[in-house]
Amino acid sequence: MKRTQVAIVGAGPAGLLLGQLLHKEGIDTLILERRSAEYVANRIRAGVLEPGTVDVLERAGVASRLHAEGLIHDGVEIGFRGRRHRIDLKALTGKAVTVYGQTEVTRDLMNARASSGAPSVYEAEDVALHGLEGPTPRVTYWHQGAAHEVACDFIAGCDGFHGVSRRSIPASSLKIFERVYPFGWLGLLADVAPPWKELIYANSERGFALASMRSPTRVRCYLQCSLEDRVENWSDDQFWDEFRRRIGEEVGALVTGAPSIEKSIAPLRSFVVEPLRFGSLFLAGDAAHIVPPTGAKGLNLAVSDVLYLYEALRGYFRERSVRSLDEYSPRCLRRIWRAERFSWWMTRQLHRFSDDAFGTRMQQVELEYLFESPAAQAGMAENYVGLPFEPGS
Ligand code: APR
Ligand code: PHB
Predict the structure, then answer these.
(1) If I label 318, which of 22, 158, 204, 328 is the partner at 20 to 30 A Cα–Cα?
(2) What is the pLDDT of residues 175-184, one digit of tens each?
(3) In this predicted structure, what is the pLDDT of residue 309?
(4) Residue 96 CB contacts under 8 Å (≥ 6 apart), including other chains
């Protein structure tokens, strides 16, 4: 039987970053990923990094391309009733966000993993976790037709919302909190220069729209859509027509309808599982929580979980500190719930919910208050750039 100190399930940003931080600390890991390396490297996801996330990526030694190519944004805009209102993140918090695609973060982490020589198994099938409550946890999987078994000290469940890790915990040991929203986001990626300088989150009568970007020559845009909608129902021209109507006249007039490189629909969900630990299994990232994408918190939250898990495991391997392991879940959950609240709040204020006259008025006063009150703007800005990390013990 093979042996490693930490078996990491999933090679998304959470699993790869944990592997990199632990490698730098001299702790052995094995990463097991269900998909192929090519699939993982090309997956399109969000792209706004909090300054705290950039710090952790720096610490992991994977931030040089991010610093060269990432776009620093000092503010974001909110469109409402035909006008755009700027939230000056820099003036309100002293901090800015970095626009750099999660696809690029993943590639940087995959390259770092490859150069470290630490092992990863892509296309690992039927990953199963065993002995989580005992002293000898194990992971089994199939690869290229052969069965494998790995003994370890700990298992990091970084395998996303649909992974096997959370499902390996008995239901009676978990509490689940969930909200599913009555709409989805239709996203489109296109190679064209963005005619906007900063991200625009627009609440229009026809529904939400987001103008984002990946680089000076690539845009990423989204439209609120119905959950029954299909990508096939939207030609590129139809997407751009609707986008122009929702994003506001001034910007809409500058939008050229470039052909899409990718189009997809994602549902919106808030989800948290408590606690994040079961015996020797620790959940991190999307395996433990989902936020709707409106606050751009998904990747950032995965990174703070991973930082905390890295510190907990380091405490154990350096000093046999069981306390640092015990603190992992409560420490993570405090930050997770704050990001859940902010993402839920952004989603609530910016989308159209059907037949809710009271809710629509509340949305209107909430947004008008935000545009008029520097105190309300400071609250939004502080959350958008990311709440501070809690110091470890
Ligand atoms: N066995 C092995 N690997 C698995 C399994 C399994 N049974 N199930 C899922 N995986 C892999 C997935 O293929 C994926 O590569 O686990 C990885 C999980 O990665 P992500 O879904 O990217 O999750 P995470 O690393 O937590 O990153 C969170 O990604 O989903 C976005 O919005 C989210 O931005 C956030 C970030
Ligand atoms: C993106 O660029 O994909 C993006 C940006 C901001 C969000 C969500 C997605 O809030």
Answers:
(1) 158
(2) 999 999 999 9
(3) 98
(4) 51, 72, 73, 74, 89, 90, 385
Length of the chain: 393
Please check whether residue 223 is in contact with residue 185, taking contact to mean a CB–CB distance below 8 angstroms.
yes
**Contact assessment for residue 192 and residue 256, using Cβ atoms and an 8 Å cutoff:** yes
Mean pLDDT of 47-69: 97
pLDDT digits (tens, 9 = 90+) for 244-268: 999 999 999 999 989 999 999 999 9
Ligand 1 center–CA 319 separation, angstroms = 30
- Report the distance separating Cα 125 and Cα 144, nearest Å: 9
Q: How far apart are CA 20 and CA 17, in angstroms?
A: 5
Exposure of 283 by Cβ count < 10 A (0-12 exposed, 13-18 middle, 19+ buried)?
buried
50 CB within 6 A, ligand 1: no
CA 186–ligand 2 middle distance (angstroms): 12
Residue 323 tokens read as 């306390």
CA dist., res. 40 & res. 42, Å (int): 6
Residue 107, both tokens: 């590639």
Confirm or reject: Cβ of 15 under 6 Å from ligand 1: yes
| Alpha-carbon distances of 368 from 102, 189, 202, 295, 298, rounded to whole Å | 32, 31, 14, 19, 27
Closest CA to 41 of 9, 11, 68: 11
pTM of the model: 0.97
**Does residue 299's CB lie within 6 angstroms of at least one atom of ligand 2?**
no
> What's the CA gap between 344 and 281, in Å, rounded?
28
